[in-house]
Specification:
Number of domains of chain B: 1
Strand order of the largest sheet of chain B: 4-3-5-2-6-7-8
Structural class of chain A: alpha+beta
CATH superfamily of chain B: P-loop containing nucleotide triphosphate hydrolases
Radius of gyration of chain A: 20 Å
Strand content of chain B: 15-25%
CATH architecture of chain A: 2-Layer Sandwich
Number of helices of chain A: 2
Helix content of chain B: 25-40%
Order of helices and strands of chain B: EHEHEHEHEEHHEHEHH
Largest interface: A-B, 61 and 54 residues
Largest sheet of chain B: 7 strands, parallel
Number of helices of chain B: 9
CATH class of chain B: Alpha Beta
Number of strands of chain A: 7
Oligomer: heterodimer
CATH topology of chain B: Rossmann fold
CATH topology of chain A: hypothetical protein PF0899 fold
CATH class of chain A: Alpha Beta
Structural class of chain B: alpha/beta
Distance between the termini of chain B: 69 Å
């Protein structure tokens, strides 16, 4: 018992701001959004980023309100300070494994989906996950 | 100097970086014939016990190491290490999941020499770990009977990204109204390819069938190198 186990604090090495108490997965996602938009603003004579259009998969359990809050916190002192995140949800699209027909469904009916063409129930997820920065409005 | 607003097209996938790190890690591990398995579940579903049972079941056939992820504590890694299994505790400091870079750091600390399989015990959480590719070759999840049979309806993403679902604590079935057939049907609808195993990490019921499936997946992905490498004298 009491075997010595190597310990590694994996997150502390990477987070610029130690926000361990509140850290959820919105935080690393938000950090990535910030670094992507700042990279795209570089060398383009941008004085500030006004608005960022994000597309988020309907299946992603990321709360819009919290991503904006984290973003506002992390972006202080950068070109993206005060930027508004405009979030649109990308629909869940399933494809039937039997007849290849695609169907767009609501999150609530994900587990109850049926193929509109052959009524098959073996459906594969085609889209509805992930986070994409579409574009941004800058000055 | 103009105040006019202009539009910059970005078109970037936020997870592209993690997915690239994960892909590269998977390729490197495959090249050195090390299999990486990601085990996910809610808190208390029995991940650690199931991992210990699995290692025991395959002892002498595959050599295991374990990466234990936890927000803060080290109890799981100590439990695994006490069983003589090489383990590293990854403390995520509040983050609710592991990503591929964290796993890479963990594998470096663990050391891969003499291991055929590394099992990642992800942070106990049915939401976030489903969104991040860890670099694992297979992803599995546990759902334990006391958690209830409605979980595939509540956390569809997790159930849709895994290769196998282990329904654990089936020794509790008699005390519960958990409907295994309903779970199988709900999961099949969102993930038709998933393999479902009914196990009890406590009694050992069903563990062999699951372990044999895992062994088969290891052979499929990294070949049957394990046997040859288990005689270091011949190297």
């Amino acid at each position: 018992m009491g075997a010595a186990v190597p310990r590694l604090d994996v997150a502390a090495r990477r987070l610029r701001k130690n926000n361990a108490e509140t850290g959820m997965h919105e935080l690393p996602i938000t950090e990535r959004i910030l670094s992507v938009v700042l990279r795209h603003a570089e060398g383009r004579n941008v004085t500030r980023i006004v608005r960022i259009h994000l597309r988020v998969g309907e299946l992603s359990d990321l709360a819009d309100e919290w991503i904006q809050r984290y973003f506002s916190y992390l972006s202080r002192g950068t070109l993206a300070e005060h930027a508004v995140l405009a979030i649109t949800r990308a629909p869940i699209v399933l494809q039937c494994l039997d007849c290849n027909a695609s169907v767009e469904i609501r999150r609530e009916s994900f587990g109850e989906a049926k193929c509109p063409q052959c009524a098959g129930t073996r459906m594969d997820l085609v889209s509805g996950r992930g986070y994409f920065v579409e574009n941004m409005e800058v000055q | 100097m103009s105040d006019a607003v202009k539009l910059i097209e970005v078109k970037e996938d936020i997870q592209a970086d993690n997915e690239r790190v994960a892909r590269e890690l998977r390729a490197r591990l495959a090249a050195r014939k090390t299999f990486l398995l990601n085990v996910m579940s809610g808190p208390g579903a029995g991940k650690t016990s199931t991992i210990l049972r699995t290692v025991e079941e395959l002892r002498g056939r595959l050599r295991f190491g374990v990466l234990e992820a936890d927000i803060e504590s080290t109890v799981d890694a100590e439990r695994v290490a006490a069983c003589g299994i090489r383990a590293v505790q990854l403390r995520t400091g509040g983050l609710c999941h592991l990503d591929a870079t964290m796993v890479e750091q963990g594998l470096e600390a663990l050391g891969l020499d003499g291991l055929d399989v590394v099992i990642i015990e992800n942070v106990g959480n049915l939401v976030c770990p489903a969104e991040f590719d860890t670099g694992a070759m297979r992803n599995v999840m546990l759902l334990s009977v006391p958690e209830g049979d409605d979980k595939p309806l509540k956390y569809p993403l997790m159930f849709s990204v895994v290769d196998a679902l282990l329904i654990n604590k089936v020794d509790y079935l008699a005390l519960s109204d958990f409907d295994i057939a309903a779970v199988r049907e709900r999961v099949r609808k969102i993930n038709p390819r998933v393999r479902v195993f009914e196990i009890s990490a406590k009694t050992g019921q069903g563990v062999r069938e699951w372990a044999e499936w895992l062994h088969g997946e290891v052979e499929t992905v990294v070949g049957s190198a394990a046997q040859a490498e288990s005689h270091p004298g011949r190297a």
